[in-house]
């Protein structure tokens, strides 16, 4: 079950930017491409109420980036995110 959420994303020391994570799953997500994204640098993701997450860029296609979490989300954490998006 994939979900879509708004969060903040950044690479390196660049400023945080609002982004929409789409098709979120315990293993990863898709995100709209941003021009300065560099596949060799990890992405940092801030989801409100959660610890900072790290992901890597796996692919870029048609203005979309596919990312994989450094460590898959625990199922309880993923279920919490799903519940939060359904009550928001």
Strand order in the largest sheet? 1-2-3-6-5-4
Low-confidence sequence ranges: none
CATH architecture type = Beta Barrel
Strand content: over 45%
**Major sheet:** 6 strands, antiparallel, barrel
Number of strand elements: 6
Mean pLDDT: 89
- The proportion of residues forming helix, as a percent range, comes to 10-25%
Q: What is the helix/strand order?
A: EEEEEEH
Number of domains: 1
Whole-angstrom Rg: 12 Å
Look at the helices and sheets and give the structural class: mainly beta
Topology-level CATH name: Thrombin, subunit H
**CATH first level:** Mainly Beta
Distance N terminus to C terminus? 17 Å
Number of helices: 1
Q: What sort of overall outline do the alpha carbons produce when their principal axes are compared?
A: globular
At the fourth level of CATH, the homologous superfamily is predicted glycosyltransferase like domains
Concise structural overview:
This protein has one helix and six strands, in the order E-E-E-E-E-E-H. With 88 residues, it is mainly β.
Please write out the topology:
Blueprint (H helix, E strand, L loop, with lengths): L2 E9 L5 E8 L3 E5 L10 E4 L6 E9 L2 E6 L5 H13 L1
Antiparallel strand pairs: 1-2, 1-4, 2-3, 3-6, 4-5, 5-6
Structure overview:
The chain is mainly beta and 88 residues long. It has a single domain, classed as Beta Barrel (Thrombin, subunit H), CATH 2.40.10. Helices cover 15% and strands 47% of the residues. It has a six-stranded antiparallel barrel with strand order 1-2-3-6-5-4. The longest helix has 13 residues. The radius of gyration is 12 Å and the shape is globular. The two termini are 17 Å apart.
């Amino acid at each position: 079950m994939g979900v879509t959420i708004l969060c903040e994303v950044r690479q390196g020391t660049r400023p945080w930017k609002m982004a929409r994570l789409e098709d979120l799953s315990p293993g990863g997500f898709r995100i709209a491409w941003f021009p300065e994204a560099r596949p060799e640098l990890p992405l940092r993701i801030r989801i409100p109420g959660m610890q900072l997450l790290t992901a890597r860029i796996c692919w870029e296609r048609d203005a979309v980036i596919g990312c994989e979490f450094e460590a898959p989300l625990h199922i309880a954490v993923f279920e919490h995110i799903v519940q939060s998006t359904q009550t928001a």
